[in-house]
Automatic annotation (TrEMBL):
Keyword set, alphabetical order: DNA damage, DNA repair, Glycosidase, Hydrolase, Lyase, Membrane, Transmembrane, Transmembrane helix
Domain of life: Bacteria
The gene coding this protein: ogg
Key word Hydrolase present: yes
Membrane-spanning segments: 200-220
Signal peptide positions on this chain: none
Gene Ontology molecular function terms on file: DNA-(apurinic or apyrimidinic site) endonuclease activity; hydrolase activity, hydrolyzing N-glycosyl compounds; lyase activity
SUPFAM superfamilies hit by this protein: DNA-glycosylase
Name of protein: Putative N-glycosylase/DNA lyase
Listed InterPro entries: DNA_glyclase/AP_lyase_Ogg, DNA_glycosylase
Gene3D superfamilies tied to this protein: Hypothetical protein, domain 2
UniProt entry tagged with the keyword Lyase: yes
Length: 231
């Protein structure tokens, strides 16, 4: 009987080609509306179920708040939208952090407006993904290394940055790629270290680190839904 490690790796390798095909079938996002929607979704998804974050990002997008020039009312409008019930798959739910996330998104809008005017301009003027990620982490509230990596991946900017969420970190521990168990990483040095380890693992499988993490995320969610951890 195969070990848990073997079954996990086999599952990741099996679905990787589908993940890769899906990623490369989507054009790189360039429209400002799509960029801000993806940006807000990445910020809003921290410690929140992803469908709820998507619903919140959709609500913000409908009001054009982040497409408008930042003003003294931007934060207030964002908090108001995030405080209202959100339709998630036919049922209404409340977003968990309306005040803090509204403040973070408003501050990010100001920072990006002051730096390059638009998100699109920022991505055009700096085409080094590692440098871009670091800029987001240093200059935009709510954007840690995981969220910044996710934003750049989901926009099609780079598939060479890892999204190290709790599912991916658990996989790395189970596979013996790291010795300690962490559910999140907040500092850049620690993030770089784990990302380098996962990149080496991905390279050995002939995969991109920014896509294999996606495959791992899918597999580990399935794995953790079973009582015995088997497929």
């Amino acid at each position: 009987m195969s070990s848990v490690r073997e079954r996990l790796e086999r599952a990741v390798v099996t679905i990787y080609s589908d993940v890769e095909e899906r990623a490369f079938s989507v054009p790189v996002a360039t429209e400002e509306r799509l960029l801000w929607k993806e940006f807000s979704c990445c910020v809003l998804s921290s410690q929140v179920p992803y469908p709820l974050a998507v619903a919140a990002a959709d609500a913000i997008d409908r009001e054009d708040v982040l497409l408008s020039d930042p003003s003294d009312e931007t934060e207030e409008r964002l908090v108001s939208i995030l405080s209202a019930p959100l339709n998630v798959d036919g049922s209404f739910r409340r977003y968990r952090f309306p005040a803090s996330r509204g403040r973070q998104l408003a501050a990010a809008r100001i920072a990006i407006s002051d730096h390059t005017g638009t998100l699109g301009n920022l991505l055009k003027t700096n085409q080094d993904p590692v440098s871009l990620r670091l800029w987001f982490v240093k200059n935009t509230l709510g954007m840690g290394p995981k969220q910044a990596s996710m934003f750049l991946r989901n926009c099609g900017v780079s598939y060479d940055l890892a999204v190290l969420d709790r599912h991916v970190l658990e996989f790395m521990t189970r596979m013996g790629l790291c010795s300690d168990t962490q559910s999140s990483i907040s500092t850049m040095p620690a993030y770089y270290k784990r990302e380098t380890t996962l990149r080496y693992y991905a390279n050995n499988l002939g995969a991109a680190v920014g896509l294999i993490d996606w495959a791992i995320w899918i597999v580990m969610r399935m794995f953790n839904k079973t009582e015995t951890g088997s497929f």
